[in-house]
Amino acid sequence: MNLPFFVYGTLRPGEVNHDRFLRGRTAHEDPGLLRGAVLYEGPGYPYAVEAPEGEVRGELVTARPESYEELLAMLDRLEEYVPGDPRNLYDRVERTVTREADGTAVRAWVYVAAPTVAARLRARGTRVEGGEWRGAA
Q1: How many other CB atoms are found less than 10 A from the CB of residue 56?
Q2: Backbone angle region of 120, left / alpha / beta, with phi > 0 → left and psi within -120 to 50 → alpha
Q3: Quick check: is 72 in a domain?
Q4: What distance lies between CA 27 and its chain's CA centroid?
Q5: Which of 64, 5, 67 is nearest to 30 (CA)?
Q6: Are the C-beta atoms of 13 and 59 separated by less than 8 Å?
Q7: Which residues have CB under 8 Å from 135's CB, separation 6+?
Q8: Is 12 inside a domain boundary?
Q9: CA 106, 50, 131, 81: dihedral to nearest 10 degrees?
Q10: How many domains does the chain have?
């Protein structure tokens, strides 16, 4: 099954990587909410860190079926994610995201901070209050 992607940083509409990676490859982009995570500032992009009390705002992106495999590979490269690699900055995990328009719960891929990055951010990172990140596109 091809899961949608939940994006919360530079892949959101109006941000630097949206057009580069998503334009023409998506069927739908809907506002969504990821519960159980908080955002931390990164070097020009955010990290979602799993935390029971938080929520992160972003978009639920459904890829066009013919673009899914290409988009999955491109996003893994962008996030420097390699399954099982302990050097990953992000891990791609399956989580439930709520579609804001109708409250529907949807299973989606989310790139969250890998465990070592998450531990560092919790100890000395700058949290993004409100779970809404907007960079300087």
Answers
A1: 27
A2: alpha
A3: yes
A4: 17
A5: 5
A6: yes
A7: 9, 10, 15, 16, 44, 45, 46
A8: yes
A9: -80
A10: 1
107 Cβ partners below 8 Å, 6+ apart? Answer: 3, 94, 95, 96, 97
67 Cβ contact list (under 8 Å, min separation 6): 24, 25, 26
- Exposed (0-12), middle (13-18) or buried (19+): which is 135, by Cβ within 10 Å? middle
Band of residue 1 on the pLDDT scale cut at 50, 70, 90: confident
Domain of 60, in residue numbers:
5-106+116-128
Residue 74 carries which DSSP code?
H
> What stretch of H or E contains 76?
helix 68-78
- pTM of the full predicted structure? 0.94
User: Residue range 76-86: average pLDDT?
Assistant: 94
Radius of gyration of the chain (CA): 14
In a domain, 78, yes or no: yes
**Domain presence at residue 82:** yes
Contact between 58 and 47 under an 8 Å Cβ cutoff? The reply is no
Query: Could you tell me the CATH number of the domain that includes residue 37?
Result: 3.10.490.10
**pLDDT for residue 66 is more than 80:** yes
